[in-house]
Amino acid sequence: MTRLDSVIRRLTAQRDLLDWATREIDAHGLVLEVGLGNGRTYDHLRSRLPNREIYAFERALAAHPDCIPPEKYLMMGDVFETLPMFTERFGAGSVALAHVDIGTGDEEANRQLAKRLSPLLENLLQRGGLLVADRAFDLPNCTDISSQTNVAEGRYFVYRR
Ligand SMILES: C[S@@+](CC[C@H](N)C(=O)[O-])C[C@H]1O[C@@H](n2cnc3c(N)ncnc32)[C@H](O)[C@@H]1O
Questions:
Q1: Can you list the positions of beta strands (E) in the chain?
Q2: CATH number for the domain that contains residue 58
Q3: Which of 10, 58, 86, 110 has an alpha carbon within 20 to 30 A of 120's alpha carbon?
C-alpha cells in the first residue's frame, strides 16, 4: 500500500465513521470536536448535525476561514486545561459525541496523549455517548464497538459509554 493509499483509507474511514456516528447519537447532548486543525471534520460534523451544539478544541488556530466555529463554541488552549474547565461548566455526562483527532506522526507521543486524555473524555460522555477517535483509548467504563462498524480493524476507533 502506498502512502497515498493509506491516507485515502484513513480519511475514508474517518468520514464513514462520522457519518455513522451522527446517525447513531442520542437526540440530546453536546458534540465535541477535539483537534480542530484545518476544520475538515468539524465542517463535516456541522453539515451532518446542523441543529446541534458543536464545541471545537484547539491550541493553535489554523482552520480554513470558513470552518472556524463561532467564538462561543471555540475552546482555545491545551485540552488538558480546556477539557477540565469544560467539564466544570457543563458537567460530567454532558456529551453525546466526541470526535478526537489530535495525533501527530509520533506514535509514542500519541499513545501517551490518548492515555492522559482517556479519563477526561470518558467522564464527559453521557450514557450511550460515543467517542470516535483516530487511535485507541483506554476507557474502562465504555465498550469498544469499533468492530460493529464497517471500518477496517485498527483504522479508526469507536467506544460507547
Ligand atoms: C490532525 S489535526 C486535526 C485535523 C482535523 N480533524 C481536520 O479534519 O481538519 C490535530 C490538531 O490537534 C491540535 N492539538 C494537538 N494537541 C493538542 C492539545 N494538547 N490541545 C489542543 N489542541 C491540540 C493541533 O494543534 C492540530 O491542529
A1: 30-34, 54-58, 74-76, 95-100, 125-133, 143-144, 157-160
A2: 3.40.50.150
A3: 10
If one counts the domains in the chain, the total is 1
Q: Which residue range is the domain that position 87 belongs to?
A: 3-160
Mutate to test the pocket of ligand 1, among 11, 36, 85 (most ligand atoms within 8 A of CB): 36
C-beta of 4 in contact with ligand 1 (< 6 A): no
Cell of 118: 482517556
pLDDT in tens, the chain (161 residues): 899 998 999 999 999 999 999 999 999 999 999 999 999 999 999 999 999 999 999 999 999 999 999 999 999 999 999 999 999 999 999 999 999 999 888 989 999 999 999 999 999 999 999 999 999 999 999 999 999 988 888 889 999 99
Is the CB–ligand 1 distance for residue 17 below 6 Å? no
